[in-house]
Amino acid sequence: MRNLRSGENDTIKYIKDFIMAEKEPYMLYSVCHGDTIASFDVYIKNLLTSETTLVTENKTEVTNLSLDQNGKQWAFLTTDQKSDKAQNLTDYMPAIKMHRLLLIFQKNSLCLKVISSAPIKN
Questions:
Q1: What is the DSSP string of 38-106?
Q2: CB neighbour list of residue 94: distance below 8 Å, 6 or more residues apart
Q3: CA–CA gap between residue 59 and residue 74 (Å, rounded)
Q4: Cβ(71)–Cβ(79) under 8 Å?
Q5: CA–CA separation, 115 vs 122, rounded Å?
Q6: pTM of the full predicted structure?
Q7: Coil, helix or strand at residue 14
Q8: Residue 32: pLDDT above 90?
Q9: Are 14 and 23 in contact (CB under 8 A)?
Q10: Could you report the per-residue pLDDT of 73-96, keeping only the tens digit for each?
Q11: What is the largest CA-CA distance in the chain?
Q12: Is the CB of residue 13 less than 8 Å from the CB of residue 31?
């Protein structure tokens, strides 16, 4: 990324997905790491100050990143399950991925996480 005001460059490696706020300078993104089994961390970055905050870490899957216009509320689907095989109910049924919805609200530099109480079939 290049800051057009300061001319500084910043590189974020292994980004899987990202979304930008429409009205404020925030970017929500997920980063993949791991050698044999992928693991994902989610970050929010203030593009004016370059401050980066870890939202959640070590998730097996992160999808559907969503960010409000002001960059203060975030949501995405995530799962901690390591393989589809562990989720099969019988040999004859397809795997069911169970996700949890994370909603995060930022207020005065404090992040409040709200996690859905029940898994969501995707």
A1: -EEEEEEEETTT--EEEEEEEESEEEEEEE-TTS-EEEEEEE----SGGG-SSTTSPP--EEEEEEEEE
A2: 88
A3: 16
A4: no
A5: 16
A6: 0.71
A7: coil
A8: yes
A9: no
A10: 888 888 766 544 444 444 444 455
A11: 58
A12: yes
